[in-house]
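The aim of this short unit is practical: by the end, you should be able to scan a pair of folded records and say something sensible about each. We start with the first protein, listed as its amino acid sequence and then its structure tokens.
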Amino acid sequence: MRILRRCLTSGLALGAVTIVAACGSSSSNSSTSKSGGGSATSAASSSGSASKATGSPVTIGTSLSLSGDFSADGQAFERGYKLWAADQNKAGGLLGHPVKLDVLSDASSPAQVVSNYQKLIGSNKDQLVFGPFSSLLTVPAARIAARYGYAFVEGAGGAPSVFGAGLHNVFDVSIPVKDNLVTFAQWVASLPPSKRPKTAAYVTVNDPFTQPQLPVAQKILQAAGVKTVLNKVFPAEVTDYTAIAGQVASAKPDAVLLGSVDVPTVSAFTHVFIQQHYQPKAFIATAGPDQGAQFIKAVGTGNENGIFVPNGWYGGFKKADSQQMVKEYIAQYGGDASGVNADVAEGYAVGQVLAQAVAATHGFNQQKIIAYLKSGVTLNSVQGPVKFDSLGENTAQKTQTFQWQNGNLVQTIPTDEPGATPPQYPKPPWQ
């Protein structure tokens, strides 16, 4: 998901960062790191070759938020792009050409992202491009790419605003934002009537990531007989959530669906609920609960238990190329599987999908790549299958829903997924 996580090293600074991604090496303008351990699976690299890349380099340009509001996500995306490029080069590059990444920082600015893609395509003449982080930056960036006729494969622009912009070159390898709460809502709707929540509240920040998710879930729950007692959108500029959270607590819904973009939002609602002695039976937040120790510290130890969060991927995902990527990430950056940001997988998946399109079309012709991606073919990625509809949305994946249980974030929904832990319902009492 599009979640703010740990920052990378201070070496990731504003400005241009050109990375020759061979065996995990990087230029002096980029953060240095150890070489990754192991090679990617053939499905992950999708090059169709295991020989050494010997041709002239093919440059892939991208603009990432290496500073500003989206810096943690942008830096995680860079790691995903770099891991993919290193693996692709180990497997022979793209059609025998070694991959070179041309990364510019946009400082989380829509104006700067426009300038960056104009430079990457118009001035630098990069043969291919990857998308930036966030729907906010994807729309203006994709417009520049469309002006030059470039395919725009991305992993973090899943809001309806992206697919409703009239662009025909955008392909998001991740799950559409509007579908993030679907599996949770379907699970709630499937509960026996005697156990199913009778009422629900829907509150969200006015954000293109969060706001589209709630109406889809609300429609599913209302069809199952769950009555809406509160439906509220609050401005993104709000920093004091006491009054809004108090309205939820006063309505006393059985289920709360919170459209949040960070830990502080979820923490503020949680503390108001505790103070007002309001105990929901089910509580899900679109972002924040997946931030591990930071989230537990913010809500208070024990209060995390029972809270749900949706996500399209996690470090323990049982898929061979995903496990290999996680292994390489840990070897290069440290930590453990649970600490790998989902943005890393999104970035890696962008590379995989574009590599498969290049291999299938036997070249770097943008119109052939666009036509191939629109053909209905099902592709592979570390996040799962990828199949684009006419708008460029990935229709082949389902969101997974996680829940905090006994101090651990575990995969719970869909309940028939291998290794899924049964959801705790009703939610345990606040501590």
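Turning to the second protein, read its sequence before its tokens, just as you did above.
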Amino acid sequence: MLNPGEVHVWLVRLEGEERECSHRALRAILETVTGAPVEFAVAEKGKPYLPGAPEVRFNLAHSHGLALIAVALGVDVGVDIERLRPLPEYAVIAERFFPPSERKVLDERDFFRRWTRIEAQLKARGIGLHGAGAELGGDWTVESIDAGPAFAAAVVVERAGMRVVVHELRNEPNFSTRSREDAEKDAEEH
């Protein structure tokens, strides 16, 4: 399923307690990817990893009934998702937490688009908001994820040119997945 040069992102529609459901989905996805039950460990800065499959890198974010889960081989990955909402102080927040190259925000929607990209980068590096405000060097794949009109979402990988494969998943017991490409092909055939 996972290939070098690809990052797989699951958009999960959660039904039930959000944190519990998102972690259950993460576990199911990682068990599918690794082919074995997973055990988590935590790195020095608090980022979880799989000691039994250290080449599998992953990240999770959730917001208001949706979760994003990203998985890649041998390259750090980060995701973030935010529900769009009124935020009159967005310019002040951008000035404080965004790197200088990202501080000129047009409106609240643009703020959330940039916020998800920046937070996903910080999560990929494993530094969280402690690194906010600094320019992050390196070559990145940064892509917005379509989570619907009420959300901003992004995936980032610390490697340029990565192919992003998006899957949609409902919070079901078997967590069966289909890529968006497969769903679109099926719709065209019928």
